[in-house]
Structure formats: C-alpha cells, structure tokens
C-alpha cells in the first residue's frame, strides 16, 4: 500500500478503522486524547468560574476549599496547554510533515511514544493535584515549589514526574519531525543539510527579498521546504528550548523534593531567585511567543492555501518574517517581569517593551498575509475550515494587542496579576485564537486522516462554532473587565465581590463546555463508537515510517 494512497484512501463517506494506516491511527489517537483533556480542562475551568462567582455555588463543598481550589488552578494549565494543545498540535504536524514533504514519517513507534508520554504525564500531574492537593500555582516558578511543610512531597514528586514525561514526549516529537525533514529520501534525496537548514529557518526568503531589491535573479525559485513546513521547523526550535528549560526546572525541584523525603532539607535560597526567574520565563515564554505564534502562522498559511487553492500572498516576506520571529521570540521574556522590582530597568525597557512590540508586527503581518490570500480568491464557500480559520484570526486579532497593552511598564502596574492578563490575553489567545485555528485544521484534515469519512451533522458543527466563538470572546472579555476593576488572578474571593462579571464569565464558560460536548458527539457519531475504539487497535499497515 503506497504512502499517498494511505493518506487519501477511499471516499465512500464511511469510517473504517481497518483501512487506516499506522500514521493515520497514531494521529487520531493523539487527537482523541487531546479533546478528552480539553474537556477535563473545561470542566476544571467551570468549577473555578462557579467558585469565583461565589463559593456557595461550588458543585461540591470541597471545591470551595482553598486547598482544593488552588490545586485545580495549578493543574488546569497543565491539562489545557500540555495535555490538550500540545497533543493536538503534535498530532497535526506528525501527519502534515510527511504529507507536505511527500515522504514517510521517520517513526510511527516514536509518535506512539509521544502521545503516550504526554497522556501519562498529564494524568500524573492531575492526580498529584486531585489526591495530594499539590498547589504551588505557578507549578515550577519561584519560589521553588519544594516547601514540604506547605505541600505534600509525594504529591510534588508525582507532579514533577508528570511534567518530566510531558517534556520527554515533546523531545520524542521533535526528534521525529527533524528526522523526517532531514531524511535524504523522496523529494529531498538530493538536498543537502545546508539547503534544508537555510530553507527551514526562512533564510531563503530573506535572500530572495534581497536579490529582488538588488535586481538579481531569485536565490531560490523552488525552496527546499514548503512554507508551512518552515513554520513547523522554526516553531520546533522554540519547542525544543522550552522543553529543556521546563525539564531542567522540574529536575531542580525534584532534587529538593527527593532530598526532603530522605530527611535532608536543602535551602532554596541557594538558587539565585532573579537568575532563576529570568531563565524560567525565557523558556516558558517560548510556549506562547515562539511556539504558539509561529506554529499558528504556519497553520494559517497552510489553511489559506488549502481553502483557496492559490499561492500564498507575499510568500517570501512570510518566510523572512518567520526568521525575524526567531530573534523576537528569544528576546521578549522580560515582559513577564515588568513588575519585578529586582529586574534591571533596561531589560524591562528593551526586552519587555520594545522587542515585545515587534510581536504585534510579526503576528499582524501573518494575519494580513492570510486575509489577503483569502480576499484575492473571492468568492469562497463558507466551509467549516474557513469559518474556524476566520474565528482564529479574530481571536489573535484581539489577544495579541491585549498582550502588547500589558507590555508597558506603566499599564503593567495596573494590569499585572489581575484577571485581565489571564482573561483578555491568555484565554482569548488560546480558546479563540489557537483552538479555532486547530478546529479549522481538524475539519480540513478530517477526510484525509479518516479515508474520506463524512461529518455526521453540519448543523451541529455550526452550533459548535458560534457557541465556542461567542463563549470564548465573552468569557475573556468579562474576566478582563473584572481585572480592570481590580480583581486579582490566582486569588479566591469569598463574598461575591465580582459577582456580576464573574456570573457573565461563567455563562460564557458554560457555552464553551457545551460546544465541546456538541463537537465530541458529532465526531463520535461520524466515526462510530466501534471506529473510535478501533483507532487504538494495532494497524496492519507498517509502511508509513522508515526509522525505528
């Protein structure tokens, strides 16, 4: 069975798990786990929304207990970002890199190890919060969450072990992607490593622009890598660095926890607090400013070309911008430390404000290029992938400026540590910007990864779209308004001080949860319960990989 046939398959509209290739199955396994974790994160979010309205509205009395509340708050981003978002992004790119490069994945076995490690790691982190109430809020941030008088040492060890598994799973994904891209097979059989690196970093786009300005022939008429692959290549660099930093922070915390279990109490002040915070935020910021923005830009470019069937507008500039974003994403971490009195003022000014402002340019450029590509292809049919792509563009169009507003030393003193940060910026960026882009990719790739299966109900897809879009924007906006009124994040209110705004945010949050239930039901009905179980059964076809 050929690789191309594996991807396209039949088109009779029925889902048959027995016809799926090993690559298709491993992709779908990660997608299924991603959306299950998304549901768990949504339920956790709604519990916190209800407690923030008023503790008496908690579904169970123990949920309103501060210890349990803050343990939910601690693990909520782990489940939502790593368990769900990472899995979905990694699944899509594990499928797309072979598809776009027209060669097999390096290792399906390694892809299986990726989703298994991230799934098990996320589950361990969740159990650490649920059973041992491990609740240091910012997980691995300063002060180091190794205080065994405040937190359970066993819970901490389980939590950090889970985080470590997520990061090692991430490293497996990275190795698989680069091994596939650099493999001298298929269309890249005669390409040198230098050519692939130049294309992967978008340098050929910069050189093409320079040659055009100076009146010379293009440096490369046929780039070695397609633009979406360049975005995946570039974003994976930040993913790698981010994984190393988070894994290193986890190991450091684990040393303190294991020492305390052995009766030795190490002094956390032996680690320089300011140095640690800069190192930690440099790595963690790559999740958002490098990984999310670059991966999303690449997804927009791919979706725009798939939807329109046309060449991307200003492709060389798009390639060059991905290289520029490399430099920007490595230099903006100080905007997280604008309110930290120990942080040098020049770092706040240059890294926190000036360089951060470039993200408005790079992401705005990606949004502009995508919209013009769509505009030039008019008229377009309002398909699911187009609707959700436009929703994703709206999400980032709202969330990125909200982030730039925060990256001002004056405004940051007002907005820092309030619901504005987590609502108007983070939740709108992830729930609306990132997830609607990913939903667009899911709908676009659904026929490919299921061999032509048809969606069960278009009406449910439409209802899901509007509930998710309105709910996501509404929840983020009302949380942001509460932040402007002084409502702190990582804080519990007992007397309903922000009742009205939190009630409205809760209504919008319930819309997001209902949208997920509708989407999940629609997908299960499309593939069938038997087909869903069959995804996790071994595939008869083993030809989709050539490595280990």
Write the layout of secondary structure elements.
Blueprint: H1 3-8, H2 22-53, H3 66-101, H4 108-132, H5 153-181, H6 193-200, H7 203-213, H8 227-261, H9 273-308, H10 315-329, H11 345-376, H12 384-406, H13 409-415, H14 419-449, H15 458-484, H16 499-527, H17 529-534
Helix pairs in contact: 2-3, 2-4, 2-16, 3-4, 3-5, 3-14, 4-5, 5-8, 7-10, 8-9, 8-10, 9-10, 9-11, 9-12, 9-14, 10-11, 11-12, 12-14, 12-15, 14-15, 15-16
Describe the structure.
The protein has 548 residues and is mainly α. Helices cover 71% and strands 0% of the residues. The chain is built from 17 helices and no strands. The chain has helices at residues 3-8, 22-53, 66-101, 108-132, 153-181, 193-200, 203-213, 227-261, 273-308, 315-329, 345-376, 384-406, 409-415, 419-449, 458-484, 499-527, 529-534. Helix 2 (22-53) packs antiparallel against helix 3 and helix 3 runs parallel beside helix 5. The two termini are 19 Å apart.
- Helical content (DSSP H or I, runs of 4+): over 70%
Number of strands: 0
Portion in beta strands: under 5%
Q: Please tell me the overall pLDDT.
A: 89
Rg, please?
Answer: 23 Å
Distinct helical segment count: 17
Largest sheet: none
The helix-strand sequence is HHHHHHHHHHHHHHHHH
What class do helices, strands and sheet pairing give? mainly alpha
- Sequence stretches where pLDDT stays below 50 over 5 or more residues: 1-11
End-to-end separation in angstroms reads: 19 Å
Overall 3D shape: globular
Could you provide a short overview of the structure?
Helix content is 71%, strand content 0%. The chain is mainly α and 548 residues long. The chain is globular.
């Amino acid at each position: 069975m050929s690789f191309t046939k594996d991807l396209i398959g039949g088109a009779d509209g029925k889902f048959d798990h027995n016809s799926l290739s090993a690559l298709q199955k491993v992709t779908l396994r990660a997608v299924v786990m991603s959306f299950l974790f998304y549901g768990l994160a949504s339920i956790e979010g709604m519990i916190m929304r209800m407690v923030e309205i008023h503790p008496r509205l908690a579904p169970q009395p123990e949920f309103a207990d501060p210890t349990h509340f803050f343990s939910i708050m601690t693990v909520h981003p782990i489940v939502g970002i790593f368990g769900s978002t990472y899995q979905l992004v990694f699944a899509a790119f594990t499928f797309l890199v072979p598809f776009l490069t027209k060669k097999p994945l390096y290792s399906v076995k390694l892809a299986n190890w990726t989703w298994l490690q991230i799934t098990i790691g996320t589950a361990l982190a969740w159990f650490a919060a649920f059973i041992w109430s491990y609740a240091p809020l910012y997980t691995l941030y300063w002060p180091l969450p190794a205080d065994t008088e405040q937190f359970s040492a066993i819970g901490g060890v389980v939590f950090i072990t889970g985080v470590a598994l997520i990061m090692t799973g991430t490293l497996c994904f990275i190795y698989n992607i680069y091994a596939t891209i650099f493999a001298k097979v298929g269309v890249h059989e005669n390409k040198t490593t230098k050519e692939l690196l130049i294309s992967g970093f978008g340098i050929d786009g910069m050189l093409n622009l320079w040659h055009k300005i100076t009146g010379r022939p293009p440096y490369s008429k046929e780039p070695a890598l397609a633009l979406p692959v360049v975005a995946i290549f570039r974003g994976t660099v930040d993913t790698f660095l981010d994984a190393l930093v988070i894994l290193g922070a986890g190991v450091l915390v684990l040393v303190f926890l294991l020492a305390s279990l052995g009766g030795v109490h190490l002094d956390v002040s032996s680690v320089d607090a300011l140095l640690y915070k800069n190192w930690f935020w440099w790595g963690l910021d790559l999740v958002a400013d490098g990984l999310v923005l670059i991966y999303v830009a690449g997804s927009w470019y791919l979706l725009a070309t798939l939807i329109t069937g046309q060449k991307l507008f200003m492709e060389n500039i798009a390639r060059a911008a991905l290289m520029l974003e490399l430099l920007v994403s490595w230099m903006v971490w100080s905007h997280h430390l604008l309110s930290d009195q120990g942080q040098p003022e020049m770092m706040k000014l240059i890294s926190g404000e000036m360089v951060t402002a470039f993200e408005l340019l790079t992401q705005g450029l990606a949004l502009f290029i995508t919209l013009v590509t769509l505009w030039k292809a008019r008229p377009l049919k309002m398909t699911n992938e187009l609707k959700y792509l436009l929703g994703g563009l709206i999400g980032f169009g709202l969330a990125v400026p909200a982030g730039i507003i925060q990256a001002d030393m004056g405004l940051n003193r007002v907005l820092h540590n309030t619901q504005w940060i987590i609502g108007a910026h983070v939740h709108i960026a992830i729930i609306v910007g990132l997830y609607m882009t990913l939903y667009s990719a899911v709908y676009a790739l659904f026929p490919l990864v299921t061999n032509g299966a048809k969606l069960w109900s278009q009406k449910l897809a439409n209802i899901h779209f509007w509930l998710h879009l309105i709910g996501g924007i509404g929840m983020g906006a009302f949380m942001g308004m509460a932040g402007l009124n002084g409502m702190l994040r990582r804080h519990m209110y007992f007397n309903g001080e922000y009742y009205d705004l939190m009630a409205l945010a809760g209504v919008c949050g319930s819309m997001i949860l209902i949208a997920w239930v509708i989407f999940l039901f629609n997908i299960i009905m499309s593939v069938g319960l038997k087909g869903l179980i069959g995804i996790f059964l071994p595939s008869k076809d083993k030809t989709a990989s050539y490595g280990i």
